[in-house]
Specification:
Elements (H helix, E strand, L loop, with lengths): L1 H21 L6 H26 L7 H27 L5 H12 L3 H43 L6 H9 L2 H15 L5 H24 L11 H24 L4 H12 L5 H9 L3 H29 L1
């Protein structure tokens, strides 16, 4: 447990620092919006590409780790869609449903990569890179479709939905990094030096932005929709992912990384997508805040239990 906490503590301290800075030194929304866009469109995609380029996937159980995470994310996505008729009768409208969906299925990659690296170094990052390829394209495509179908007052065309997906920088980053890794295309030294510098800064800035986006208002009396999203993401998703990984024969550090990637809170970029596509952004802000705070408690427990069992 001490090792797990020492790996998680720097991550959550950076989130807390971002929360403090937003209310003291950097109070302007424009300051954080600029950092948010820089991270989303430049820093984080560079980190994804470089992590995948350097990952030694020959020594990683790609099918087991990727399959467990992909299937668990797909299962929770289908469960959310199946629950929609029930949720709609509980005064949960379309935009609120899209926030539940994003809150239950998306993952905070900054936290996952930081914890994986703190626990297992380069091997942890290689394992987490498999998770990125398995989860990021799937949940981004599904989130765009759900927002377009349930949040928009006017249904968007298939062409518009595809266009939104194609413009996603994280999907492109996964595709480029995986292609370079598989084809072994040599990259110049200057690329690696620049990418390493940008990648290191992306995790720190991303965690600060995550903290800055937290909203404590209404946490003592969370909405029903927020509670549902918290349960699905922090309780059901890890159970499904770990069970599937064990079924695939995954053990040791690989199983721990599956636990890490499935137990992290939802992505702060989901809030940006909700604002842009008509989702219930205030609800999603509450979901992200609740999950981030509770994950500081649930993640150490989940990781410690899996580490002990493996």
């Amino acid at each position: 447990m001490a090792v797990v906490i020492s790996a998680l503590l720097p991550v959550f301290l950076l989130i807390v620092l971002g929360f403090v800075l937003r209310r003291s030194l950097m109070r302007l929304d424009t300051q954080w919006h600029g950092l948010e866009r820089l991270t989303y469109y430049v820093l984080f995609p560079t980190l994804l590409i470089q992590t995948l380029v350097k990952a030694d996937l020959s020594h990683v159980p790609v099918a087991g780790v990727g399959g467990a995470l992909l299937l668990s994310a797909l299962a929770v996505s289908l469960l959310c869609l199946a629950l929609w008729p029930i949720l709609s009768r509980c005064n949960i409208d379309g935009p609120a449903f899209t926030s539940i969906f994003q809150g239950a299925t998306r993952w905070q990659t900054y936290v996952a990569l930081a914890v994986a690296g703190n626990l297992y170094g380069q091997n942890g990052l290689a394992l987490a890179s498999v998770a990125m390829v398995a989860i990021i394209p799937l949940v981004n495509v599904l989130s765009v479709w759900v927002l377009a179908h349930y949040a928009s007052p006017e249904k968007q065309s298939v062409r518009a939905i595809v266009g939104t997906v194609v413009k996603n920088p994280l999907i492109w980053a996964c595709a480029i990094g995986l292609t370079v890794n598989v084809t072994q295309i040599p990259l110049p030294k200057i690329w690696h030096e620049v990418a390493e510098a940008l990648g290191r800064s992306s995790l720190g800035i991303g965690l600060l932005v995550t903290g800055a986006g937290l909203h404590l208002e209404g946490l003592l009396r969370p909405r029903l929709a927020a509670s549902i999203a918290v349960f699905l993401k922090l309780a059901l998703m890890p159970v499904l992912a770990i069970a599937l990984a064990l079924w695939f024969g995954i053990t040791g550090s690989s199983l721990v990384i599956v636990a890490v990637c499935s137990a992290v809170p939802t992505s702060s970029s989901a809030y940006v997508m909700a604002r842009q596509m008509g989702g219930d952004a205030p609800l999603l802000a509450q979901i992200i805040t609740l999950q981030t705070i509770l994950a500081a408690i649930t993640m150490p427990i989940v990781i410690a239990l899996v580490s002990k069992g493996s």
